[in-house]
Design brief:
Layout: E1 8-10, E2 16-18, E3 22-23, H1 29-42, E4 46-48, H2 56-64, E5 74-79, H3 86-100, E6 105-110, H4 118-133, E7 137-143, H5 147-156, E8 163-167, H6 175-183, E9 187-191, H7 196-200, H8 212-221, H9 225-235, E10 239-240, H10 247-254, H11 263-270, H12 287-290
Parallel strand pairs: 3-4, 4-5, 5-6, 6-7, 7-8, 8-9, 9-10
Antiparallel strand pairs: 1-2
The structure holds NADP nicotinamide-adenine-dinucleotide phosphate (NAP).
């Protein structure tokens, strides 16, 4: 198999991030090493994990156990809400860095806003700014920040986030968040980029994989629906982080740099937005409902 090389996107601080990475949400720790190894073999150079996924250690082991130099792999992870607060978040960096077995994390982001305790969210972000100034991380950002959360953060922050990782697939595109991101030079990174949330969670809309517009576009290009959705996200300038534990799908998902969707095909997929999110409402995220201890390294 020939490894595919991924184009890079420049973040607002000049750091470059591979446009496509492997997501490992819901990848069990015991399957994570193999998934990351398969991804590195296929050409991925960007892995998106999180303290809350419980598999940072295995992500690190796969990277260190590979023939690829650590410096060539962009490692992104997330601070969980239970570790928000200035000192707590500085310590959470140490936990993640030790589990990943790295000196420096390429991109460290806040996993969620905590709307009911936004002061803690701001303190956590201030810790990210310190980690950035100290060279412990190369870039900082946020995830699941809606317009109101981002606006409040931008009013307080010294460093504009480099990335806002949000649910973004054909059935839920969040144009308001995307345009605020763009206005401030924040890269929108799409989670569930092939609509994973629409088919692994019971919802009231069907799977993006079975969508007829996406299916027809896939047929036209001789590609899979997943490849069409990833291409659509990339052509919009987003970073995409598809998850799979299956080597064949991992390889399929990166094979998206040798075809192009037409303007009409892009517009037809844009028109599939239902405005209904698959994931939890960011405002429903509270420490009471979602808090849980992130173990020490
Ligand atoms: N910040 C956040 O709050 C947040 C939330 C959710 C996700 N994320 C990040 O975003 C990443 C991706 O999101 P996601 O995992 O929710 O959804 P996704 O990548 O859109 O979809 C993943 C699902 O699609 C399947 N799949 C993968 N490739 C496929 C293909 N080519 N054809 C058919 N099915 C395929 C996977 O199953 P198999 O593994 O069995 O192949 C899995 O069930 C996560 O892993 C995580 O890193 C972040």
């Amino acid at each position: 198999m020939t490894a595919i090389s991924t184009p890079l996107l420049a973040l607002n601080n000049g750091v470059e991030i591979p446009a496509l990475g492997l997501g490992v949400f819901q990848t069990p720790p015991e399957e994570t090493r193999d998934a990351v190894r398969a991804a590195l073999d296929a050409g991925y150079r960007h892995i998106d994990t999180a303290a809350a996924y419980g598999n940072e250690r295995e992500v690190g082991e796969a990277i260190h156990g590979s023939a690829i130099d650590r410096s060539e792999v962009f490692v992104e992870t997330k601070i969980w809400i239970s570790d928000y607060g200035y000192d707590e978040t500085l310590h959470a960096f140490e936990k993640s860095a030790r589990k990943l077995d790295v000196e420096q994390i390429d991109l460290l982001i806040l996993h969620q806003p905590l709307p009911s305790a936004f002061d803690r969210t701001l303190e956590a972000y201030r810790a990210l700014e310190t980690l950035l100034a100290d060279g412990k991380v190369r870039a900082i950002g946020v995830s699941n920040f809606m317009v109101e959360h981002l606006t409040e953060l931008l009013a307080q922050a010294t460093v504009v986030p480099a990335v806002n990782q949000i649910e973004c697939h054909p059935y839920f595109q969040q144009p308001d968040v995307q345009s605020l991101d763009a206005k401030h030079g924040i890269l929108t990174q799409a989670w569930s980029p092939i609509g994973g949330i629409t088919f692994y969670r019971d919802g009231d809309h069907g799977s993006t994989l079975d969508d007829s517009v996406i299916g027809a576009t896939a047929k036209f290009h001789g590609r899979s629906p997943a490849q069409v959705m990833l291409r659509w996200g990339l052509q919009h300038g987003r970073s995409v982080i598809p998850k799979s534990t299956k080597p064949s799908r991992i390889a399929e998902n990166i094979a998206v740099f040798d075809f192009e969707l037409s303007d009409e095909q892009m517009t037809a997929i844009d028109a599939l937005d239902t405005g209904r999110r698959g994931g939890p409402e960011p405002d429903a995220i509270t420490l009471g409902a979602f808090g849980r201890e992130i173990p020490e390294a």
